[in-house]
Amino acid sequence: MIKKKELEIFLSTLKDFESPKENLEQWSTPPDIAAEILFIAYSAGDINDRIIADLGAGTGILGIGAAILGAKKVFCVEIDPNAYCIALENLEKAKRIFDNIDIVFLNMDVRNFSKRVDVVIMNPPFGLEKSTRHADVIFLRKAFEIADKIYSLHHFSSKSRRYLINLARNNGFKGSILRTFHIPLKARKEKHRKERLIIPVDLYVFEKEY
Prior knowledge:
Low-confidence stretches: none
Largest sheet: 7 strands, mixed
Shape: globular
Number of helices: 6
Structural class: alpha/beta
Order of helices and strands: HHEHEHEEHEHEE
Strand content: 25-35%
Number of strands: 7
């Protein structure tokens, strides 16, 4: 069994976005935070021998990490063809080191993904840009359709917390916040005066209520 620090170190070697697209709100999940999220899910029994989906997988860091931790199968869904190609490179790197990795990368819109899975683990667009407004809700609604348990990162605000918890309740899920991370994001706009932005992000877990 790989240790959390070992997983973090490996994830840090994966190739990142080459030219992040603003219209898709492509921010990387830091390796330390990705490892932390994955071990939280693993400790809850939600990775080992589970079928997992990563919606908006980007370059594959969460999906590959889940496979390394023993997921039965992982579906990584990513709409951007450039990110998809990088993710395939990262998968080949992982396969050279780890055995029995079963990942399917799909270059498609998450709204068209319909496979039933056990767990969704994702870092969707936060919906902070004009072009991505409410994108996080689109990802969550799809997750509610295909899984009974969801781990998902969302931008912190009191308003969004209330909205997301109510959205989950209206879809038959109980939602709670497990952790708040402060993610450093490299500024890439003229309006960003600082070289790095620190964004507070909540890790939610949503569970189907029966």
